[in-house]
Amino acid sequence: MSAQKGDWATSGGRLSRRGAGQLSGLVLELLRRDGRAQTPAEVLQQLTEAGSGPLAYTTVVTTLTRLHEQGVLDRYRTGRAYAYLAIGDPAKVTGRRMRRMLEAENDRDAVLASFVSELSPDDERALRDVLGADFGEPEGGVGGR
């Protein structure tokens, strides 16, 4: 599979392959920070000004469309194009994404076990606190650990 123009980012004056989801993250951050609906052309201009490397208009449109399909952006018709607006707070959006990924798996228990096994001690403690608060468990968490 060949790389597309928008798959590359400038790093230290060199072109390097853009990481998975990196462009989506940049676009979402830009729209959240600005707080107003923007067309793909406006997003492309801001990304270019921010030094995001060479990007094709179609790459930006595809990224915005995918973020809309994921429920992260609203879009409004503005003439022949759409204007996109970030919705929700970042924690809720990430939680929604995690839930969708979990729902797509056949063995949810295995996925959850794998996820928990990868948590740092601080994140595990935070998860236990959230679960304890939601389900009335003692502060020590489920199972008294």
UniProtKB/TrEMBL annotation:
Q: Which InterPro entries match?
A: BlaI_family, WH-like_DNA-bd_sf, WH_DNA-bd_sf
* GO MF term (any one): DNA binding
Q: Supply the alphabetized keyword list.
A: DNA-binding, Transcription, Transcription regulation
Name a biological process GO annotation. negative regulation of DNA-templated transcription
Family that this chain belongs to: Belongs to the BlaI transcriptional regulatory family.
Report the protein name in the record: BlaI/MecI/CopY family transcriptional regulator
Say which species the protein is native to. Answer: Amycolatopsis acidicola
